[in-house]
Amino acid sequence: MSDHATNPVNSPGFRLRNVPLLSRVGADRADTLRTDIDAAVAGWADALLLRVDRRSQVLISGGRAVLNRASDAGASPPENAVFLGRLDDGRHVWALRSDLKPPQDSDGPVEVLDLRRAGDVFDDVSAQLVATATALLNWHDSARFSPVDGTPTKVIKSGWARINPVTGHEEFPRIDPAVICLVHDGHDRAVLARQTVWPPRLFSILAGFVEAGESFESCVVREIAEEVGLTVTDVQYLGSQPWPFPRSLMVGFHAVGDPEQPFSFNDGEIAEAQWFTRAEVREALDQGDWGSGGTSRLLLPGSISIAREIIESWAAQD
Predict the structure, then answer these.
(1) Are 210 and 219 in contact (CB under 8 A)?
(2) Do 61 and 110 touch, CB atoms closer than 8 A?
(3) Where does the sequence pass through the membrane (predicted)?
(4) Last residue of a domain, one of 81, 113, 135
(5) Mind listing the pLDDT tens digit for each residue in 112-157?
(6) DSSP readout, 240-281?
(7) Structural domains of the chain, count
(8) Whether 269 and 205 share a structural domain
């Protein structure tokens, strides 16, 4: 292995330049209100409601998620509603899986979009509310029966838990942690790879799910070895982002690899991988993202993904 892989010239300034889009905080999660039934009922009359349809789409207007009057859904929170938090003005916000209802007093055009396509235009409040609602509602859709004995479970804690009425056992929203890592040589080259199911020219950084009994750092080393055959060192944390499709948490890292080590695609997930220079990555970033239809030989993830933020942060280094 070359000297720069074991003793990397690794810039201490490499960090995320911006908070990943789905990690933004714009509302008070007000977790103490989840078990305060009196407060939930009292706040319902003035509360707002985010409607999310079966395709996890919401209504958007002017860069914000459309929030309806909660009281239109009934005199009290429906059993399947989930509490999202509290706005700066004190109003509660809930979410409900339902058909979408355009507002009667919208100031501009209304679109139907999902989080993947609209996350980059959301303000901070909308980004947090829609990400939380998507994660919670997706979990409820698949958690209606106890994993222990199959008993139908009931919603409790304002949508933040389910309970088995027979045993009293509580279930909480499941989160699947996954690592995502930029492998670089400590200088000006980084690895980008294309999954077998992706069209040509679409590349990103490497990712994989954490296994039982495994640390994030150990997962980075294992996944990169499995996917492209590289042995990496100097694994360092960058940041994290919820990815509610359906229930992941992406934990970002960077690590150092050796460009002289050959690639080997051991688990069948990766079709090809290459070392790209910082100049090549910058040129690809200037072309837009996967959806832009650019003509460069390299197309990169959209801004909603933490992968984009990691790549941009690395490319911005001198």
Answers:
(1) yes
(2) yes
(3) none
(4) 135
(5) 988 888 778 899 999 999 999 999 999 999 999 999 999 999 999 9
(6) EEEETTTTEEEEEEEEE--TTSPP---SS-EEEEEEEEHHHH
(7) 2
(8) yes
